[in-house]
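so my prof wants the structure for this chain in the tokens format not the other one, which i didnt know existed until like an hour ago. anyway here's the sequence
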Amino acid sequence: MVHSFMRRPLLITALIISSFTAQAKDGRIVVTGKISDTTNDALEFVTIRQKDASKMTVSGFDGKYSLTAEKKDTVDIVFSLIGYREVIRRLVNAPDTVRLNIVMRPADYTLQQVEITDFKKQTDTRTRIGKKAVRNVTSPSGNGVEDVITTMPGVSASNEMSPRYYVRGGNFDENAVYINGMEVYRPILVSSGQQEGMSIVNPSMVQSIDFSAGGFGAEYGDVMSSVLDVTYAMPDKLTGNIDISLSGINASIGGNAGKFSNIHGFRFRRNSNLLASTDNKGEYDPRFIDYQTNMSLDLSKSTTLNLTGVVAVNDYRFTPVDRNTSFGTMVRPRNFKVYFDGREQDRFTTILGNLSLTHHFSSNNFIKGGIHGFSSREKIDYDITGMYRLEDSNVPIDTTETFYVGAYNTFANDRMSLSMISGAISGGIGLGANSLSGGVTVSRQSVSQTLEYYELADSVTADNDVTPEKMKTVYRTTGDTRFDATRIAVFIQDTYRANAESGLWVLNAGVRYSYFSFNRESIVSPRLSIAFVPEKARNVTLRLSTGIYYQSPFYKEFRFFATTPDNIGRLDLNRNIKSQRSAQIILGSDVIFKTFGRPFKFTAEAYYKHLDNLVPFEIDNLQVNYSGFNSNKGYAAGIDFRLFGQFVPGVDSWISVGLMKTDESTPERKHMPRPTDRRYALSVFLNDYMPGYNRLKFSLKGVLYDGLPTVAPHSTRADRYFRTPAYKRVDAGISFGIVDNLHHPGRGMLSNLKGMWAGVELFNMFDMNNVSNYLWIGQTDGSSVAVPNYLTGRRLNLTIKIDF
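here's what i got, hopefully its the right format
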């Protein structure tokens, strides 16, 4: 997006004078409104002035402004911003109050395309991600937002069917996700990507996406790793899109009727085609469906009522038949063959809603109140028996010592409900170069769970018969618990901008206080970030962020299983749990340069996190199993790089590289890597058009992540661990533009279409085997064999995307 910071002390003075002006005086008129770019993103620091007069102001962070002008028969209002074409609006015999919403176009704008001449200066740790990147990404799961996030510096994933990701040594639970300012939660019982299905974020409804990999401000909640802040669109005219593929459909439609703006999204997805490429063969019947809405009503020129709602149902049904897995080494190749009996039926239902009322006293002064409700019902049911044969592939089949036969049975009956209701009030005051904000949130949550899990197994040599009756209990866990608790959070922060002779300085300082009634704990989280754009090198931005961040405990962190004398694990809660803590510092810089006649941005960030009060955990596929007690301490340190640019106009591409080390130690001072110790990560996100033929568009996403430390079931890394193989995958797609307004407008019945693209996608292009976790098979000598559970293989997908 085109943006550049350029202000003078005179503009700061003008903003101070005009920030609280809300009504016209004699001989004056008040002009208010919002300024945005061609993608409907708000533009800040736009200079608004009255032509041939000294009246002026600048737009705020949300693009809104208020200018008091001298009243004349004819008044010219000028809007200017470096990198954009100047806009002049003439008012003739204007009333005392006038509302002007302005769309500014880049300075090099032509009717054919938008040429990017500069990039917005990033003065905090949040990175803005373009909507087109989400629209263009080749996504096996359909979770476009998260698929783009996993290519960002410091971010990685381990399962292409899940929207979950790791950030700089943290696990999935250490990432916060917001939609329209409302924090949303993921299902707790999900243990695999097959179960999870779609992300709660609907990519077709997105207006803006901000992502921070650490060092974020005090307005965001108590997590240690990252924040994803998504804002849904509020259309100003009829708009929509339809995406159809072999996996499902994603459709959205929105419009504006004066004071009422709304957008609605519907998604239906079945991943049967993708799941059929795994080793487990059988009848897959996953059905994921959701409806989302975002509605806004202007009660007056300064007051807006907003409603955001989501209803999502994820059904996963699977009747396995058999499995054939080849693994091992070239020296000792092995084969694992299983015949199944049984089935799995899981269901995850999520309902959430957010009702908010916002009143603007002026462009930079507002107050907002809201009520947020969240409800989740989760059910896991499976009872599956497997009869297997494990053999060495290069040894004659009649050599009985080289193969084993056996049986195992896994059973689960788990019911969980989570409900939460919260009320919040927040506000902001703009005082010239200062922007002060704060808020209070009070929430009440209720959690209940009833569960029973067990596994039976038997393993004998080939000269013995195997029957399910001979299987012995490997483990068994049961439990029934419920609790209610209250959370209180208060934050205040100040953002100060100063244009000195040395350059532009931006300071953000804040503090967050939280209280959790379950463990009666209070925490205070101070946070600070500083950014500097040198006057003599305005293509450079330097950043420093630091603070103390907490991971406020949620249900998963403080539950544990106490072993009874009959060797059964019974569910219990640790009411002495404390918040995990991370003291972190981040140093970053951006350098904007031109090559091949186009601008590029190179970003580098180095970070260090000191971690204490850690609750040790192990990761099994997507399930994070916590010990339930604060016992360890550790650190995470690394450096990330990103090269960002547009090889073709209007389409983002980048390369990210990260190096990291995260370690923890027990009270006995035994050191070990954390389960998220991903020492290197490389990702490529590329979009391009066919040279000389802009109807053909190409997209590629490639990742290479280090393997993660893993352990045998019911053990820890303190006992023994090994690393999974590196996660490596390339997904690519090519599409043909049937209709493209920029180059090939539609005719006749297609004239109302903004774009229509037909495409082919190839998932896991090189058919690489990636491991999600392991199935452990016992042998007669007491040892166990780790049989890899491979993720999805190469698959072809057909798509049609229509925008109108």
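also thought this was worth mentioning. Confidence is low (pLDDT under 50) at residues 1-25, 109-117.
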